[in-house]
Amino acid sequence: MENVKARGLVLLGCGKMGSAMLKGWLAGGLPPGSVTVLDPHPSDWLRSTSVHLNTDLPKDPAIVLVAVKPQMMGDALPKLQALGNGTTLFLSVAAGITLATYETVLGADTPVVRAMPNTPAAVGRGITAIIGNAKAGAADLDLAEALLSAVGQVVRLEGEAQMDAVTAVSGSGPAYVFHLIEALAAAGVEQGLSPELAMQLAKATVGGSGQLAEESDEDPAQLRVNVTSPGGTTAAALAVLMDEETGFPALLSKAVKAAADRSKELAG
Ligand SMILES: NC(=O)C1=CN([C@@H]2O[C@H](COP(=O)(O)OP(=O)(O)OC[C@H]3O[C@@H](n4cnc5c(N)ncnc54)[C@H](OP(=O)(O)O)[C@@H]3O)[C@@H](O)[C@H]2O)C=CC1
Ligand SMILES: O=C(O)[C@@H]1CCC=N1
């Protein structure tokens, strides 16, 4: 991180994902003066920080983080061509955009790390998977990992082909969990609870269960069994949720496949 503090970090695109990561880094002590953000419509939050906003780029930043939508890449990436083929590491979080695409625009001598983070990075609880191109050496991967570990866990992939599945599980995954919270709260309202109480119960249940799953020595299957008294209420609910044709596994399998397929399509 000292490298990033000294040479600077450029963030291209500060929307939902870029701002989630930037929030995590600023909260973790990255000086705002070492960050330059390029974004056409900065949010109020971004304006309230002391980062360099839409100014000239530093000559030799340690890292350029690319966090624009895949569809915007054609417009956005050429702006950074001058930083290619040098010692600046490009770190991309864009779904579906391959390492080869970056090499085509920035030059094959550009070190590039492709990453798939998720929005819990905003509270230091993200998880990011990374894979580098041939030019990205051990020091580049270590730098990417050091930066990303400031906002959560980091895992290294064995091959770029794994990225579509990772995107479908952990990149998009928070949306599935938020939807579970919405649906659980709505079901509680149907059973007579107030919307406020139902939402409080749903959020705390998902948050607490996630933490228990991460911290417990028991695996999630055993933790599920621990909740399920024989002939009790949980067993009645699980009979619905574990139905082979209409239950969670069948539904999530279809949802995750749809996301992975879309990730492949975005690669063009
Ligand atoms: N959201 C998520 O949970 C995750 C997203 N990602 C990836 O992160 C990337 C960004 O996604 P997300 O944050 O959701 O999208 P957003 O639309 O919220 O953010 C993209 C930002 O880039 C800005 N932008 C558009 N064009 C340019 C440009 N030419 N130069 C600089 N900035 C530009 C947009 O401005 P404006 O809105 O004004 O056009 C916007 O602020 C995507 O590639 C996505 O695949 C990866 C993991 C998780
Ligand atoms: O929905 C998307 O395409 C991005 C990638 C993963 C999460 N959000």
Automatic annotation (TrEMBL):
Q: What is its EC number?
A: 1.5.1.2
Where the record annotates domain Pyrroline-5-carboxylate reductase dimerisation, the positions are: 160-266
Residues annotated to bind NADPH:
54
- Which InterPro entries does this one have? 6-PGluconate_DH-like_C_sf (IPR008927), NAD(P)-bd_dom_sf (IPR036291), P5C_Rdtase_cat_N (IPR028939), P5CR_dimer (IPR029036), Pyrroline-COOH_reductase (IPR000304)
Question: Which residue range or ranges hold the Pyrroline-5-carboxylate reductase catalytic N-terminal domain?
Answer: 10-95
GO molecular function annotations of the record: pyrroline-5-carboxylate reductase activity
Question: What are the annotated GO cellular component locations?
Answer: cytoplasm
Which reaction(s) does the protein catalyse, per the Swiss-Prot or TrEMBL entry?
L-proline + NAD(+) = (S)-1-pyrroline-5-carboxylate + NADH + 2 H(+); L-proline + NADP(+) = (S)-1-pyrroline-5-carboxylate + NADPH + 2 H(+)
**UniProt cross-references to Pfam families, sorted A to Z:** F420_oxidored, P5CR_dimer
TM region(s), chain numbering: none
Pathway(s): Amino-acid biosynthesis; L-proline biosynthesis; L-proline from L-glutamate 5-semialdehyde: step 1/1
Q: Which UniProt keywords apply?
A: Amino-acid biosynthesis, Cytoplasm, NADP, Oxidoreductase, Proline biosynthesis
Q: Where, subcellularly, is it found?
A: Cytoplasm
Q: Which GO terms describe its biological process?
A: L-proline biosynthetic process
Sum up the protein's function in the record's words: Catalyzes the reduction of 1-pyrroline-5-carboxylate (PCA) to L-proline.
Q: Which family does it belong to?
A: Belongs to the pyrroline-5-carboxylate reductase family.
Q: What is this protein called?
A: Pyrroline-5-carboxylate reductase
